Structure formats: C-alpha cells, structure tokens
Amino acid sequence: MTDRLSFARALYDAVPLYDPKRTPVALDLTDNTNLWGLPPAAERTLRELPVARVTRYPSLYAAELKEALASFVGASAEHIVTGCGSDDILDSAMRAFGEPGSVVASSEPSFAMIPIFAQMNGLQYVGVTERRDHQPDLDALLAAQPRILYLCTPNNPTGALLARETLERAVREAPGVVFVDEAYAEFSGVSAIDLARRVNNLLVIRTMSKAFGLAGLRIGYGVGAPALVREVEKSRGPYKLNAVAEQMALAALRDDMDWVQEHVALAVRNRERLAVALRDRGYAPLASHANYVCVPVARAVDVGQALRARGVAARPFPGLPHVGDTLRISVGPWDLMQRFLEAFDDATADIYGTAS
Ligand code: PMP
User: Fold this and answer.
1) Ligand 1 neighbourhood includes 220 CB (under 6 angstroms)
2) Which of 336, 72, 56, 7 is nearest to 223 (CA)?
3) Mind listing the pLDDT tens digit for each residue in 57-68?
4) CA end-to-end span of the chain, whole Å?
5) Binding site membership of 85 for ligand 1 (Cβ less than 6 Å)
6) Is the minimum distance from the CB of 219 to ligand 1 under 6 angstroms?
7) Within 10 Å of residue 53's Cβ, how many Cβ atoms?
8) Which of 2-11, 42-51, 89-98, 266-275 is predicted least confidently?
C-alpha cells in the first residue's frame, strides 16, 4: 500500500487498478481475442510501414479510418468516433455525458470495467441484477433514472443477446443516453447500428480487438447520431488513435474482410462444438452469441486454478446470479479447444475427486 497523496482526488481512493489476474500461461483462454492471430493485410502493413509514420503525429481524429469504418458498418463518417480501444470510447462517453454524481446504470453481470469507468469519472454506479432469462431488468434499470444506461450485447460474460424490443424500449424510455456495447457483435451477426443512426440518444460501441484480431493496437469506435459522437470526440481529445493502429486498421478493413468473416464463422462453429463437448460431460453451458462459452461449474475458482496448474487459463466468475459459479472460455482453433477439454477433464477430476 502506497501513502495517500494529499493532492490526489479523494474519489480516486476507491478506484482500483484493473486486475483480471492475467499471468502468463501456455494457453490463455481468458480475454476473448482472436486466437487464430492477425489478419494478413494488417500484418503486411506492420512489416512495411514507413518509419515516418511513427516519427510524426497521427491524424487528429482518424478521419480516413472513420470513412472505412463507416462503410463497414453501413453508416457515414459523421456517425463515427474512434478511440484507443472501446475502453476509451466508454470512458470518454461517460465523461461527455455524465455530470459529477450522475447515475450510470448497468445490468449485472456485465463488463467489469463499467463500474470502474463510472468511478473514474465521478459518476454514481448502479448495478441491477439481470433476469433469470439473462435479459436486463429494464424496469429496475429505468427506475434508477440513469443519465447513462449501459447494455452489452452479446453480454460479457454470459454470451446472451439483448432482445430487440428491450433495446428499443430502453432507447424510447431512458431519461439520458443509452450505451450498447457490441464488442462481440461480429459473432452474433446482430447490431443496433441501424437504430443508432435514427435516434439521438444511442451510442453503439465497437472494437477491433476481438473479431479483427488487433487487440494490441487498441482500436475502438462508437457509432451514433453526429451530434452525439461529436460530444464523445470532444471528450476523447485529439491524436488518441496511434498512427500504426490507424494504418493497420485501414488495411484490415480494405483487404482482410474475407479473413475476418472466415474466422468469425470458425469461432461460431467451434463455440457450438465446445458447447456440445461440455454438454456431453454433463454441463449446461449458457447459450452464447459471442466467441466464448460461459459454463456453470461448481467451485469455478478452484477449477480455474487446477486448469492453470495444467497450463491453461479460463476465467472463473464466482457466484453469477441465477447460475452460480461459472467459467468463461474463449473459443479458438479446435486443437486448442481439445487441449482445454483435456486439461478440464483432468482438473475437474482432481477437484471433484472423481478421477476416471
Ligand atoms: N466491452 C466488452 C464487453 C469487452 O469484453 C471488452 C474487452 N474485454 C471491451 C469492451 C474493451 O475492449 P477494447 O478496449 O479492447 O476495445
């Protein structure tokens, strides 16, 4: 514990550093990135990038990338704001729309950074337990009168897809702005972007960290009404997207879409295959629309540790509402899934004492 600085903001006393307990391991299935690797045109761009790209500043607000993202999502550049990961979009948007003390309401369980971003911006976080069917409890969320209502679809960690009528009602009835986090939307094939273009209080948040395999570059973007995204852009500030990231993202959007689609399809196929393999073992994985599987597993923290001892990491979520302890497993190439299943069989036999 370091000494508290007298000049530090008091509200930061309660802000933790993010610690998803990610220590090096031979097979890491904890962060839902693209386990097939990097798309080829993006990789070529990295190898051939002129040095001047790094010695000079990047573009102010990534205008060229906004154009490319706009045509990818079926919008125009004025609907797009980019950022340093979708984390940055979430953080900047909270700063743009929340006055000190404003309520940020989120369904729970959901993305673990939301309460932290709320705290970082001096906002008041209200978590509302989801319903038994893994849909948000919209009545309770709206009753909190949130300035910012956060919904995630497919949801992290459950993999559940938000019902369209719930989304539309949220946008109609929310007293402030609605954030829909679509970090995993490519795997579901479903998006709220069509709605975000028609209303002025919906910000859809996307990333190139997952389906596009570019997590290390930190490229996120928001889609919404021009007036809405301009506020986020003001709060984000200039030069936030680095020059290497912008060039590689442009290459990926221009030349790697077949690769991305092919690997999304593989992830979806292997997700279903993994779910079958888990059901064959007597487990009941939650229906997932993302590139991970969330499976109720008794003593998930112990099982996670036993997996780690075998060189495999999956993320435990102890005590999820309605389902209890779960493990969330990122989906990748089938040989990796087989390695996971072998370690899982071994680990669970060890923990439950039912060695076969
Ligand atoms: N939203 C969700 C739901 C996520 O799972 C993640 C990554 N864990 C993010 C946002 C942030 O992703 P990034 O900053 O890499 O775009």
Assistant:
1) yes
2) 72
3) 999 999 999 999
4) 46
5) yes
6) no
7) 14
8) 2-11
Virtual CA dihedral for 136, 140, 144, 148, nearest 10 degrees? 20
| Helix, strand and coil in the chain, % to nearest 5 | 45, 15, 40
CATH number for the region 10-35+258-352 comes to 3.90.1150.10
CATH number of 41-255: 3.40.640.10
d(CA 284, CA 332): 20
Single-letter code of the amino acid located at 309: A
Render pLDDT for 297-308 as a digit per residue (tens, 0 to 9): 999 999 999 999
Nearest to 166 by CA among 144, 188, 147, 192: 192
Q: Which amino acid is at 25?
A: V
Its pTM surpasses 0.85? yes
Helix or strand or coil: residue 100? coil
Residue nearest to atom 1 of ligand 1 (CA): 183
The rounded mean pLDDT for the chain is 96
pLDDT of residue 20: 72
H or E stretch at 272: helix 257-280
- Is the CB of residue 131 less than 8 Å from the CB of residue 137? yes
